[in-house]
Task: structure prediction
Amino acid sequence: MTWTVWSTEVTRVSVKPFNINERFDDLITKDNNPVDFDVHLTFQHQAGKTPILIEKFGMSTKENPNTGWYASKLQQPLRNDVREFVKDYSMFEISTDPAIANQLQKVPATKVAAFLKANHMPTDLLQVSVGKVMPPQSVVDATLETAAQKQRVLTQEARVKAEQSRKYRDWEN
Result:
């Protein structure tokens, strides 16, 4: 026999690892070009400590009860920190330099780890990864068109040199 009170509520909390994906669209870089990318965070609640998690941090979202604390306490500060980081680099640097990509990955990792530690939250951050940083398709298309135009110029210059070389050979003969 089990005794319960009407105010008793059962909240199930999974201790399996779970992901939170943050999508960043059109973040403006140092050179005023927008970039898009995803940040993937993998967490795991500590087994046996979930009552503390519910009591101190809440599990408020129905869609994914694991992330109520994230949405209410950490999401916007994390997004602000990533946005501030991106403002310090050009689109080309962020999208092609592996060292800067690693620094970008450390921003959410550092922010989340500090939050979990400062709040004594019984959740572990297992992994942080940043997806490919891409400019909008219109910027990609413009870059490809510029590269094609440069190649056409080089091809035309080579064609002119070849023609001049043929004329010079014919003139010598």
Remarks:
- The longest helix spans residues 137-172.
- The two ends are 112 Å apart (CA to CA).
